[in-house]
Structures are given as C-alpha cells and as structure tokens.
Queue: 3 jobs
Job 1
Amino acid sequence: MEPLYVGKTKDVFRIEEKDGIGHAGKFVMLFKDSATGYVMDKGEPTERVVFDSGYDTLVGEIPGKGIVDCQSTTYFFSLLEKKGVPTHFVEKLDERRIIVEPAMLFSLKNEAENFEGSANLNNLEVVFRRGYYGSLWRRHPHRKPGSFLNNLVEIYSKGLPNEPDILMRDDTLVELGVMKLEEIGEVKTLTKRVGDIVSEEFARRNLHLVDGKIEVGKKRSDGKIMVIDEISTSVFRACKGFVQDHKGNCINCRDCIETTYKDGKRTIRAKNLLTPDQIAEVFGFTSK
C-alpha cells in the first residue's frame, strides 16, 4: 500500500491492485496507540500527562487505544450507514484498520506564506451540542449549565498544534470559499441527524450525550457530503445520573456541575462526566 499521510494518531494508505485486498483506489486508515493531550505543572514535581483528544500535541501512548478506536469507529459508522447517514466507511480490515472512500476536505490553501503566522486551513470539525456545557457556556455564560439543547451545531476550523480550534461564522466560510451556503445547510442537517442517532444509542445504555464532534468531506467520485475520519469514544462527552425535567433540562446540575470565575477566566466541570475509557467500557469496546 502507498503511504499517503502519517498523522499523530492515524496513518492513511492508498490501496493498490497488487495488495490483494480489493478496493483498489480506496484508502486504509490505521489507528495507532499514540495519544494527544497536555502536561500539567510542567517541570514541577507534580508534573503529569493528561490525555485529551481536544489537543494536538502528542504526549504518549495508551496500549490498545488503536484497537478500541477502530472498534468504536466501525460501530458508529456502521450504525450511521444503517440509519441512512452517508459516511466514508467501507469495511473493517482487521483490529486496527478500516477501508474508507477517498474524500475531498473542506480546506483552504495558505495564500500568504510570506507573512509570519499565516497557515493552511486543513479541515473543519462540526460540533453538535445537546447540553449547555463546555466552551459554549464559557463563551455565553447566560443560561443555566446543563440546560437542554436540540442539537445546536457549530463549525470549527481545526487548530494548529498547541492552538485551539477556531469557531467559524457561516458568512466567513462562504467569503473564504471554503463552503457554499447550501453546503453549510446540508452539513448542519446531517450533523443534527448524527446527534439524534448517537444520542439514542447512548440513552439505550442509560447515558446522556452532552455533545460530540464529527468531520465531514465530499466523496471524490460524486461530491456527496459524508461523515469522514473517525468516530472514537474520545469525540463524545457523556454523563451518567442525568435526570431531565419536562423541558429536557437536568435537575441534578447543581450537584454535578461546578463553575469558577477568576482573573477574567471561566471554568466549568461536571462530576458525572465519563472518560473515553469509561464510555468504551459501557459499549463493550476492548483491546483484550
């Protein structure tokens, strides 16, 4: 197979006829054990590594992570396909590899290379929110944390290493030529459908899906918009002990959610949030 991309947590290869696995021209995605995150108290005796998929810096490896990510991605892509949501998933090749359709990314080549700090826009991430939490509350601290949201969709450009993702306005995406207005509408409709399907799957396991993120692209053969990349347990936030009132708001939020405000900075955390490992355990994804 021809190597196409070596990433932090995944590698991508193009399938050739001589590989003998069929699907020539399609891609193989290999899930690795490497993990991103950040270091707390760097250089201090209390220094420790925190694994967090929201960061782009490699901080170590988690044995078996690639196997679990492959299982969960296969599971959720298969679920979405069954429900009529287009994805780039073709089939699982082995415990660490899946076969996918080639996709065109919503990206933008850097046109200002002579200016320091300029960069490519490599792709978009689309977030669906079913609970008032995280960066949404930090940006808009006007409603009660834990309030119900009916799949609020936000589109972000993927941040550079050690930089956060950037929230994009619809008008900006159109003006930059990254997306057409009708494509933005299609992506939002698709993402809301994904949020509903995945939320139902979590609810079947007595978990409440707070939010999640997906990547989208266009199928090279016909330009059809589809869900791409991976859907591992690290792209979801889910909690246990969620009890909703008649409006869908959590009545346990005061006992679960804590917020702080210091030096102009807001923080928010929920005691009942599950880690990606805990979500994987609930769904039965395992490397053993």
Note: The domain at 104-275 is CATH 3.30.470.20 (D-amino Acid Aminotransferase; Chain A, domain 1).
Job 2
Amino acid sequence: MNLKKLIPELVSRLEDTGFDKDPKKIQSASIPQIKSGADLYIIAPKASGKSTAIVMGVIQQLKAPFEEAPRAIIMVATKEKAFELEEQFEILGKHTELRTFTVFDQGVIQYQKDMIFEGLDILIGTPKRLHELVKVDGVRLANLKMFVVDDLDSFTLVQYPLIYHVADSIPKSQFIMVANSWTSLR
C-alpha cells in the first residue's frame, strides 16, 4: 500500500502521529480492498494491525462528515474495545472531522439515540446495544456504506445471533468481518 493513495488528511495524521511509513502486511493487503467497497474477511494473527487497517479503511472510504445518519457501523464484543477503536478514529481521523460515537449496554439508550440523531458518521458499539437500537429505529440505516465486525473471535455464542439480526436489517452495505483465525469462526 502506498500512502500516496490515501486521502491527504489521513496521510497527514499518520505522519503527525509517527505512524510507521511501512504499513503492516495485513494493512497493505486489506486497505485497498476496503477502499474498493468489496465485502471481505480479514484473517490475521493477534496484534498484526487488523483494527488499524479497519480504522484507516473506514476513514479512507468516508473521507469527511456527511449528513446526519451513520455511514459506518463497527460492532465489537466489549465496551472497552469500542472505546479503544473510538480513540483510534479520533487520532487518525482528526483532520477529516469525521464524527464518531460509541454505544454500549450499560449506557442510557435514550441518550444514545439522541446523540445518534444529532448526526454522526461512524457508530461503534456492542452487539446487544446495536441490536436494541436497530430494533427501535434508533439508527437510520439508509446511508450506511459499511458494516464491520471487529475481533470476531472475542464474541460469545450469545452475541452471534445479534450480529445476524443487525446485518439482516441493513439494506445494502459493504460487510467486513475480522478475526484472528479461521478456526475461531463459528
């Protein structure tokens, strides 16, 4: 992957934050595929740069704020992972002004709905809360371009049906699933 093929705002942040000029192998392989809009499974060992590839790919696809409805939903197994991803988006997407928001099970659902309707580009959340929000029309899915499930291996058996319910509610979108190995996918 050549940094020159990324939007200038992302390249600028990568350089400002001291990001390695030579992307990891999984990033070089997956970011062009994410940019193309293809559905994909990203399978790579733990700590190989998968989550950063997702963040970079989503920023590259969305580029700048647009309207109010989310254009990317990223589902993660835990609240902690959701906040880690949100922090990565804040760091790498600073110059793009993309708006992110994190939802999780213990939060007040009405507050979360209100924040979503105020306008955002990237919604990050846990399966149960995303499912609840979709079920009560708390998330407009009309402009959704990307649905990402990160660290699929860390989801519990109880969370898998929620992934399917949310995915089935999405009219048309790029689907990206990320895991550490094929054997961990159920």
Note: The CA atoms of residues 14 and 92 lie 7 Å apart.
Job 3
Amino acid sequence: MPDRTAHGRTHFRGAAGDWPGQPAGGPDTDSTSDAEAVDQLTAQLEVAKSLAAEHLASLQRTAADFANFKRRTAEDRERELGLAGEALLRKLLVVADDFDRALDHMPAEFKDAGWIEGIVLLDRKLRALLESEGVTAIESVGRAFDPHEHEAIAIVPGTGRPDGEIVDEVQRGYRVRERVLRPALVAVAGGEAGAGDTTSHIN
C-alpha cells in the first residue's frame, strides 16, 4: 500500500512557487517590485507638481501682463479724452475773453440797457459751464509772479510795488482742476522809475 502520509509531506515541502496563487519569485521579489513602483510614482508625481507649478506661474504672469495692458490702455484713453476735452475748453476760453472785453469796455450809457443784461446772463452761463468742468480763474493782480501760472509780457518800472509783483492782467489765465489750462498774460513791477522811462514789453 502506498504511503500517503509520506507523499503528502513531500508535496508540502515543495518550492514556494508550488503554493497555490503564490508567484514563483517569492515574497522578497514582490516587495522589491512594489518599492520600485512607489519610487517611480513618487518621481512622476514630483515631475507633475513641477510642471503644474511652472504652468501656474506662466498663467499668473500672463494674467498680470494682461491686467497691466488693460490699465495702460485705460490710462491712455483717459489721457487722450482729457487732451481732447482741454482743447475744447481752450476754445471756450476764447469766447470768455470776448465777453470780458465786451463788458470791460462797455460804454456807461449802455449799462442799464436790457440787451446788456442778456449779455451778462450769457457770460454767467458760460462761467458756470466752465466751473462745472473744473475750470477756475488764476489769480494774478497783486500776487507774486509765478512762471507756472503767469506769462509776463511787460515790465512796469516805478510802480512802487516790489519787483516781480503783478500790477496788471492783460488776459485772464485758467486752470482745470490742478493743471494750468492757460497761463495768465500779465505785467509785472520791476526796475526803478527814471526820466523818460516807459513800460518795457517782453517779446
């Protein structure tokens, strides 16, 4: 009769690969393969993270460049509109100058005429329009000459005023908000009075 016990013992002492479901390489081979796979996945993850960071930085730079472009474009548009607006305001100042001359040289006998009141009303409306756009007159007479706000066209000696003080305003100057729209044309005190002295004009 065959020895079943011995046969069974021989079967169970077989190689590791003889176990059902067990790879021929054994447990140590599986551990090494898993470790290598983990290392590979970790390396791939680091590469992916690096690429993602580069793409994110590139997108952020592109977004910043676009935002700066929009800001510069808006500023350029506002500047162009501002220049166009200032050009129109300067044209209106010519009309204001005409009103100034008409009212300053109006004959006394016409001051009570009804049509004069109409001219005064139109002048007031024009001044209100200019003020609504931020346009205000530059003060001149009695103030010290300021080359940023005034343009001297004459020097008047012997006025008894300090040199450089504005003694007459030939044409009114204006500023729009904080910028000079048009400097005032003025005459300033300067020099000593002498025989035959006359007003000196600056060309």
Note: The mean pLDDT is 80.
